[in-house]
Structures are given as C-alpha cells and as structure tokens.
Amino acid sequence: MKYYVVDAFADNVFEGNPAGVCIMDDWIPMEKMEKIAIENNLSETAFAVKEGNSYGLRWFTPGGEIDLCGHATLATAYVVFRFVEKNADVLHFNTKKANHHLIVRKNDDLFEMDFPTIIPERYHLTDLMVDALGAVPVEVLRTSRDLIFIFDSEDTVKKLTPDFSKIKQFPVGLSAYVTAKSKEFDFVARAFWPKINVDEDPVCGTMYCSLIPYWREQNGLDKMVARQVSKRGGTVYCEFCGERVKLSGRAALYLIGDICVDEE
C-alpha cells in the first residue's frame, strides 16, 4: 500500500502537523487501519477511497477513529492533487464516521478547506481544570466534543505546561483547546488530546471550526490569520462563512513509501 507523510499547515518540512495518508482502491478492514495508525504513531493517519465523484475519508489516531480532522484532510487533498488528480482544482470528501461533506480547493500554493461551523457554548470552570492547565482562564467554552479555554495573555498560552494526566480526568471534552488574542496574528491557540494518546497536536484544523466563530464575535472580523504556537508551529488562514468556515494552509511532502501488510 502506497503511504505518504505530509506536513500540513506548513511552509516547510518539519513544520505544521504531520499526517499519514493512504489512498486506496478499496477499503481494508477497520482493524487493519487501526493497527496502521498505531504503527505510524502520528496524531492522524487518513484513509481515502474514490467513490464516484468524491472520496470516502476516515481518520485514525493511535487511540482509535475520530469524527473530524482538519490537518489530515489537507494532507489527503495535497496527495490527491499532486499524485492522483493532477488537473483537479476542487475535491469533495464524504467522511465515514460523522457523515460530513468536506470540500478542498487548490488556490496556488494554498489549500482551502470548507468545514462546518461549530458554535461553542459557555461552560463552568473547575479546580481540576485550573490544576491541569496550570493557569486560570478568563472563560471556558464547550462544544459537543471539546473544551475551549480562553486566556487574556498570548504569553500564557505559549508557556503553558499542562498536566496531561489530569486533562485525562476531565469528565467532559475529548480535547482541551487554549487560545488568546495575539499581537502579530489575530489569535493564537494550542490543542491538547491526551485522551486519545496525543498530548499536543502541532496544528489542529478542526479546532478552528469553533475558534473562528468565537473570535469573530470578539473582533468582528470575517477573515483572520491564526497561529498555532506549538513547538512545530503552523499558520491557519481563517474565514467565517455563516454555517461553514474556510481553513487554508500550505503543505510540504516529507515521505513517500510502501506499507507492507497482509490484506487477507
């Protein structure tokens, strides 16, 4: 099976968020995809199969399948545009776990993803949250899947050293996002996923589905530039479009190889 590793939301290799990508003729058993994701040990490995005029798409973390992933979608689109459908400028993906319809457009060296808007709601702060994060947020928000912590200082977000074992104890929230207003960018953010064995995701595309509507409410901007301030770092170009958001970024190819598996 042909295998690619692409650094998504990256201007150069070794930046952004690496994702594994497998473009297949037919689906292989779910257990095989889970094992490949564990063996690859990246935050996500994407599997795609051409189905009519679109691609079926699934993402697996080392801890199991996930319902929505931005950076691995960008990485998959990069591979399809470059190696499979070289004359295409728009790709459609239908996700298998949550039945999302995702669109990716190629605009010069930027890849623009059309994702659903996720509106967060206010949530309450607990002592466990403060203890786990090591700092006191000014606001806590929640989506159906994730927790969002708003801080009043960009430096605080950059310097956080969370206790991941305590984040795992949060009774709600598959992930913990932290964000603050920025001087150089419109806002900065980080994403922690210890519950699925990914302590910090270098650049988390789906996080921006909920951060874009929040920050638009704060600053009134439909278009924003965000910076994920993880160790690797990455820049995300954001646009609010009502019920949809657009996430754009660049990508860099790191690896092309072959996975040797028994498909019986």
UniProtKB/TrEMBL annotation:
Keyword annotations of the record: Isomerase
Record-level Gene Ontology MF annotations: isomerase activity
InterPro entries reported for this sequence: Phenazine_PhzF-like
SUPFAM superfamilies named in the record: Diaminopimelate epimerase-like (SSF54506)
One Pfam short name: PhzC-PhzF
Keyword Transcription: no
One GO cellular component term noted in the UniProt record for this chain: cytoplasm
Active-site residue list: 44
Recorded coiled-coil stretches: none
Keyword Isomerase (UniProt): yes
Similarity comment text for this entry: Belongs to the PhzF family.
Protein's UniProt name: PhzF family phenazine biosynthesis protein
Originating organism: Anaerotalea alkaliphila
